[in-house]
Specification:
5-stranded mixed β-sheet, 8-stranded mixed β-sheet, 372 residues, Major capsid protein gp5 fold, globular, alpha+beta
Length: 372
């Protein structure tokens, strides 16, 4: 059987395959639903480079609130204007590539077209999955040397991405622990994961307090139509399962939604209560894959979850151009390979918060450590 020469694909045909792969990757990607162009987005999506004296860069702009009180009555305003303060934060970008290759003509009796299609499907899913992992690890401040479940990555190149160096741990005022064991049931500020007890599982009170904490610290929510300010909380499926066993949560869920077959109580869909969307996702950071002694709790044996409570501009994503689609024949065209490459980058914005004495804090995300 003669193999189709991959070199016969025109550049237009390669573009079609590339865009088809990117469409599938976007559809598979969990973070895609949170992307937006402007500052009223959970993840600000940067698709164009901004020219500056340092060259073309991917930039996310943070706008500070005005601090002055204005002037009263007919007192002179001219000369007392207040300049707007904007802070540009650069998202470093890099290329992430992967490929697959069949063993040879005798090992693969299927058509080249089917090989292309299968490669597109698996590479699209791989790209979507790695984008999701990188996004949540950047939000949580977890090194790319780890997996979201706390296990070590073996033989991985993710740690060598340019933007890997910008991954930073939660800032001091954005790092909380839920104490659900004591009678007070409260958030503990600046606490270590070693303080998490096995009974400190998510409760509805925790999210009520997280929302109040965010508002007190001027963390903007994402405004929806009508001006409602909303926040998004992300939990692992195991943490969500524990939350569903909380009576107060279930009571609020029953009464906050319409009583029909579309009620999230019956469908398991994303829940919105009191302006908070609750999402469960497997790549929310947790300790299931971490070694005993490296988990949460005093002895490092408590499995836990790093709940991410997000407002606007919690994360910036640089997404530059369509993926590259390349095909190559090996061993006199006896075997074929397909590679894809995507230029992208992630950054968790930080800001000198005027409401917290200028302390540099994560701009739009709070981490809360719980047991699961």
């Amino acid at each position: 059987m003669a193999l189709t020469n991959f070199g016969l694909l025109t550049s237009e045909q390669k573009t079609v395959w590339s865009m088809d792969l990117w469409k599938q990757a976007r559809n598979h990607s969990f973070i895609n639903r949170f992307l937006g162009k402007g500052p009223n987005s959970l993840i600000q999506h940067i698709t164009e480079l901004k020219k500056s004296e340092k060259g073309a860069r991917a930039v996310i702009t943070l706008l500070a609130d005005l601090t002055g009180d204005g002037v009263a009555g007919d007192r002179t305003l001219e000369g007392n204007e207040e300049a707007m303060q904007t802070f540009d934060q650069v998202i470093r970008i890099d290329q992430l590539r992967h490929a697959n290759r069949h063993e040879g003509r005798m090992a693969d009796q299927k058509s080249i077209v089917e090989f292309r299609g299968n490669s597109r499907d698996v590479l699209a899913y791989w790209l979507a999955d790695r984008m999701d992992q990188l996004a949540f690890q950047t939000l949580a401040g977890i090194s790319y040397t780890k997996k979201p479940n706390g296990a070590n990555r073996v033989g991985s190149d993710l740690q060598y991405l340019e933007f890997a160096a910008d991954v930073s741990a939660p800032s001091a005022a954005r790092r909380l622990r839920w104490d659900g064991t004591s009678s007070t049931k409260t958030l503990v500020a600046g606490a270590a994961t070693s303080g998490v007890a096995a009974t400190d599982t998510p409760m509805w009170e925790m999210f009520v307090q997280l929302k109040a904490y965010a508002k007190d610290r001027y963390i903007r929510g994402v405004k929806e139509d009508g001006g409602e300010e909303t926040y998004h909380a992300f939990l692992t499926p195991q943490a969500m399962a524990k939350l569903k066993m909380d009576q107060n949560y279930m009571l609020n869920l029953r009464h906050a939604q319409e009583r029909d077959k579309a009620n999230p109580l019956f469908t398991g869909a994303t829940v919105k209560i009191d302006g908070i969307y609750l999402h469960e996702f497997r790549h929310v950071p947790n300790t299931v894959g971490a070694a005993s002694g490296s988990k949460y709790g005093a002895s490092g044996t408590v499995d836990g979850c790093q709940v991410l409570f997000c407002g606007a501009q919690a994360l910036g994503m640089a997404d530059i151009g369509a993926p590259e689609w390349n095909e190559k024949g090996f061993d006199y065209e006896n075997s074929q390979g397909i590679s894809v490459g995507k230029i992208l980058g992630f950054l968790k914005p930080k800001f000198g918060n005027i409401y917290e004495n200028g302390s540099v804090e994560d701009f739009g995300v709070i981490s809360c450590y719980v047991a699961q």
